[in-house]
User: What shape does this take?
Amino acid sequence: MSRERVAIEEKPNQPDEHDDAPTTDAPDDEAQLEQRIEAVLLSLEKPATTGKLAEWLDIGVEDGGSDAINAAIADLNNQYEHAGRSFRIERVAGGWQIRTLAKFAETLVKVRQTRNEGRLSQAALETLAIVSYRQPILRADIEAIRGVACGEVLRGLMERRLVKIVGRAEELGRPMLYGTTQRFLEVFGLSSLKDLPQASDLRPV
Assistant: This one.
């Protein structure tokens, strides 16, 4: 037997050309998840919770889906920061939302100057501030703090879905108690009421 014949026989078995071969162009699951999350958030007007994102993306929360989504969002924000983008994915009202950075607020205010009808009056802002810090609160207590009647202002805030009735007080007449809404958190970019500025932060330096 020739040496050439021996060499051929000693080679390990080679896979048949018809055998299934591992694919080399498998999609990058992590990158794909980031793209899907970004696409979903760009299409929404309201914040989406991690659980809702997992549901839409068919990711089991019990199988670590929440951690995967949180990690993907953190990576997206790192990419945005590295690329110098003007927005980030922020926690707002218990969910996630794409929002512009605060340093661009002045520019955006100029863009929206034609929407004056959407602005809150000074009376509305004062009333909303009292409700947000003192809730649940009675209308009588709001009026005692402001020193003026606020029935119309409260109704306006309720129409804008910034304030709602959250219950009734355990006192004579069972007067209504007022508090802020989920919409309030969305409008002011807050994750929860704990993110409201503290009194020490509001004092002039």
In short: Strands lie at 87-92, 95-100, 137-138, 163-168, 176-180. The radius of gyration is 28 Å. The chain has two domains: 29-101, 119-202.
